[in-house]
User: Fold HxlR family transcriptional regulator from Chitinophaga polysaccharea.
Amino acid sequence: MRKEHSTNAMNEQFLFGVCELNSAIAVISGRWKSQIVYSVSRGYNRFHLLKRELPNISEQVLGRQLKELETHAILVKKEIAGTVPIGIEYILTNKGLDLVPILESLCNWGKTYEGKEIAACR
Assistant:
């Protein structure tokens, strides 16, 4: 938890006020969030499917990143009726769906300027 009047908090508040790009980047920042959004958009919409798609992420980090994406209304959790135990799937909101082409554009930019083929972005 960041102190409300810390230098970091004040700098963040300043940057968010200067340009909405800074707050947008803050929503998707983190090592795994953009890949999680992209994976959910491709149908990997349950915890175990995401874990299989992203084997290097720990369950704790995956859970935390999903919760943060839910807090920012990028995705929502939905119970799957008729499953025992109760199954949960993650669904991108309109805000999340609008983010997917932006992530794809960033991926293409990365391919162009990094000179590497990134399999997950195809």
Observations:
- Residues 106 and 112 are 10 Å apart (CA to CA).
- The two ends are 37 Å apart (CA to CA).
- The chain is about 60% helix and 10% strand.
